[in-house]
Amino acid sequence: MQTRMSEQRSQREASQEDSQQNVARSSWWRSALFGYVAALLLIGAAVLFDKMYDYISSSISMFDAAPFGLVSIVVAFLWGLRPALFAVVTGMIALALLLSPPGLLRANIGKDIVIFAPFVALQILAVATAIRFEAARRRILAARRMTRTYAQELEAVNQRLVQVNEQLERANYLKDYVIIRSSHEIRTPLTVILGQTQMALRRLKKSGETVENWSALRECLEAVEAQALELRLLIEELFDLSSDRTGEFPLRLAWVDLASLSRDVIKHQEAFSDRSIELELPSEPVLLQADEKRLAQVLVNVVNNAIRYSPERSAIQVHVYPEHDHMIFEVHNDGRALSTAELGRIFEPFYRTHDVENSAIKGWGLGLAISQEIVERHGGKIWAQSSEGKGITFFIRLPGNQEKPT
Amino acid sequence: MMFSSPGHPHLTIKDESSIASSIPPTKTERPYILAVDDNWSVLSTLMSLLESDGYSCVCIAESQWVLPFLQEMGKRGEKHLPSLLLLDLMMPVVSGYDIARWLSAHEPYNQIPVLVITADARVRDRRDVPGAQDILLKPFQIDVLLTLVEHFLAPLLGRS
Most buried among A193, A300, B29, B123, using CB within 10 Å? Predict the structure, then answer.
């Protein structure tokens, strides 16, 4: 959950940066520096226009300063305050030096100011208005863009929330299902324990402590012990499943050699099952940061499954090999191929395929669910592949560690 | 491995035709109790409980053989049908629900009282299982079971 949220946050930050970059990118030609150059060019154009006008129609005289006022306002709109003030000043200088009747701006400064000052003031006022207007327009545009971006983000967040909600609902359903199934599975051995003890007590009460009753008591105690052991195993498995899910007990990480761990597990499983298992290991030790006990539990689970769900004397292959910066532990057996639907459910707690459920093979269907939790806690992944005539292959991929312990 | 009766604890039924040959008619004369549960430990506990109280008992652990067995007994005559059926619900292949429903719909099998013994706590009373006369939740008190069994068998045994 936490990683998902931080992921969302960083995505949002990234998209904000992106939108800022968009603004910058779309207005590269509106940089202040470009504004100064453009102001100079436009003033040049204004001078040219005035000269040409005078040349073409000398009969009707025009107010020479008007084009410069226009340039200042255009520059203000497009490039803001500084280039606009630059345009005002440069425009006035150009007007004075290139267009004014001789004598102006040279003979009587006081008179010049009287002539030019109102026009300059007017330009500055127009420039200020243009800048405020443009700034407001930009703010509106930016706000509109931001709203659009937020709406899109909100939509994406909503979609993710819907997905997360579905996942949570599924998880919650599974939790309830686990509790119901567990209580069912616990009731069965308890029935035997309670039935046997009550029966023995009844017998002792009825006919006293006779020799026959003592031997009956022994049988009863054996049945009780067997069921109590069964119950203990179930409770241990339920505990593992639950504590791995909540992450209540941290993994005891240390350097583990996957090759030697695999060798030990397979040796033990071979002795236990009387089956032979082909093992292919890299020549070098395969060092991983892992909780050795929990990882061994996973390997035992998948190898034991391969033994139990494949025909007697059929081959089982275990292969350990590196893949990029990960290590793969692969177990193959020639059991019945699983359908896609079955493959999708085998990691669910208490799930057993229909034919296994109807077979004499005992089990609750918790081993793979526990294995998945353990592997995922190690930052790895477990999955299975199966196709008709090709048996079943389980893959466990664990992050390998490049740095070796000193 | 699924069939057991007093003196024949480990009879095996491989197909329907073997039922007639493997179960002598003397073993299925009333009154006897048929117990069905896929868990062998529960089944043997039930069997020793009932037998210690003097009841005759036949056990089936693989539920797919319950209906063929009953039909075979039906052929032998009504007096070979069990006086009571103790039935588990959650069993592979054929569930207890299916067995109870089938029995309630077929003569003369609907005469057999069905006492459901289940570990499914969602089943609260007999209305939850069509065809069942009563429900007993695992783990049960043996006096409760024996009282119920006696209640169902009393009319047949002539006890009051």
Answer: A193
- Residues of chain A in contact with residue B45, where contact means CB-CB under 8 angstroms, are 191-192, 195-196, 199, 223
Looking up residue A331, the CATH number of its domain turns out to be: 3.30.565.10
Q: What is the pLDDT of residues A290-347, one digit of tens each?
A: 999 999 999 999 999 999 999 888 889 999 999 888 999 999 999 889 999 999 899 9
CB contact under 8 Å between A203 and B52, yes or no, is yes
Residue type, A381: K
pLDDT digits (tens, 9 = 90+) for B131-149: 899 999 999 999 999 999 9
Burial of residue A305, with CB atoms counted within 10 A of its CB: 0-12 exposed, 13-18 middle, 19 or more buried: buried
Q: Which sign does the torsion angle of CA A170, A175, A179, A184 carry?
A: positive
Chain B residue at shortest CA distance from A181? B120
Average pLDDT, chain B: 84
Chain A residues whose C-beta is within 8 A of a chain B C-beta are: 180, 183-185, 187-196, 198-199, 202-203, 223, 226-227, 357-358
| Least confident residue range of A366-375, A389-398, B52-61 | B52-61
Are the Cβ atoms of B140 and A194 closer than 8 angstroms? yes
Bond from prior residue into B31 cis (ω within 30 degrees of 0):
yes
Q: Which amino acid would we find at residue A272?
A: F
**Assigned CATH for B3-157:** 3.40.50.2300
Cβ contact, residue pair B120, A184, below 8 Å: yes
Chain B residues in contact with A202 (beta carbon < 8 A): 52, 142
Alpha-carbon distances, residue A36 vs A24, A42, A60, A127, B107 (angstroms)? 18, 10, 33, 15, 106
Q: What pLDDT is recorded for position B93?
A: 84
- Residue A221, in any domain of the structure: no
CB contact under 8 A, A358 and B92: yes
What's the alpha-carbon Rg for chain B, to the nearest Å? Answer: 14
